[in-house]
Amino acid sequence: MPIFKLYRYIQRGAFSILAPAFLITVSMLALLGVALWQERRDAWQRADLASANLLTALAQDIGGNIKQVDRGLQITADGLAIPGIWTYPATVRSLILFAAGRASPYRGRAFVLDSQGRLIAGSNREPPLGASFADRRYFTVHRSGGTAGAFLSEPLDSRVAGEGRSLVLSRRVTGTNGEFAGIVGATIPLRSIHATVSSVRSGPQSAINLFTLKGTIIVRNPPLPKGATHNIYGSATFDHMLREPAGQFVGTSAIDGQERLYTFLRPAGLPLILDVATSTREIFASWRTRAGLYGIAVSALCIAVMTLSFLFRRELRRRADSEAELGKLAATDGLTGLLNRRSFDAAIAREWRRARRTQAPLSLVIIDADHFKAFNDHYGHVAGDKVLQGIAAVMQASARRASDQVARIGGEEFAILLPDTGARDAWHFAERVRRAVSDLNIPHRANSEGVVTISIGVTCSVTVEAGDVEAFMNAGDAALYLAKNAGRNRVADTAV
Q1: Is 154 assigned a catalytic role?
Q2: Could you tell me the pTM of the whole model?
Q3: Catalytic-labelled residue, pool 259, 412, 413, 431
Q4: Which CATH class is domain 201-283?
């Protein structure tokens, strides 16, 4: 700006007004920056503390339960040293050898192998005595003298029916002369550890992982995405956790590429790595929200026009809310609050396309109030409306998933759309609805049951080879007619 113009502004007093306003604005922005920086640091410290506390609790739970299994193995080994143990009655011997290990919810099957790897005792009946496990690494590592204490195997497929993937914790049994006399061991089904890990709620972008020292993922919450690797050995994050027994760092996930705060340790000194991986995006999510609000507030104070912008935005929001309310009224049934026929038709068309694309089952439940016209004739339309509202309330209470679509598609006819639900589950669902309506005990003199009942038709798309939504609806109607023709107050189903 030319000097003479600046002088002119000073002369007019403009500078004396603009300078304080500018200084106030800068001061407020500086205070805002300091406050936001402090809140950001606090958010990180809270996440740090929460991760550490959660990790400690999980490590104590997982490590303590596995240590309980190990203590049971030590007691089993001590029991084998009792003179004449094999002459004891089988039930007494089993109590001596295996009763102590039952304290751990992680222990599956406890067993004893001889020096040849043959099963000579077990806490349950399978596999049968004499079965050979000489090929298992948890046996060969002890036979070769590769470990002096407890050995925890990599995940393997259990040979006990129903156990599934398991870890095996084992210890060497030494004879009277120091020779190798076999091993004692116990399976730890992964589902037991998964129950502990999955009981903890993590953020949608965060994760809890338990690894072996070879990088194999034992359990993860949430479960691994389909097609994701089950071993991250050699990745930068795993190498970091492998170098130290415990610690914390920020890294990029080898599974999904997200940046996370990793807090990790080895529970109870076991050859396992447990980590809590908190998404940095989630750590600062609420902070970002507050920062936006604070920025808007300060800007509103610094720039007067923000007031007009706020009023304009509020008016737009009111209009949007009004339009949303009108849309809701247009999409729902005024009496019951359920979806109306138009909305249901759109929903079934959408879910039908999705079911055909993903090959997921889609079930349709069609419900009709029995002898409803006779009810209206005897009790009046007001009572009839209350019956319809009662049936609607039962349906809404039964359809608990967000994806379930409940609608009134006719006078006394209703429909429930159940995505990802097979025919058997849909039938049981419908039967629960039918019983719940009967349990309302609404008197109905014109009905043979003496109370209001419903007839239900159920159909499922899993058997569809060809056809369309209309054929799907017709199948549901056909199932409903089957229920009515069979005497009403029942559930009938038919294939599309």
Answers
A1: no
A2: 0.53
A3: 412
A4: alpha beta
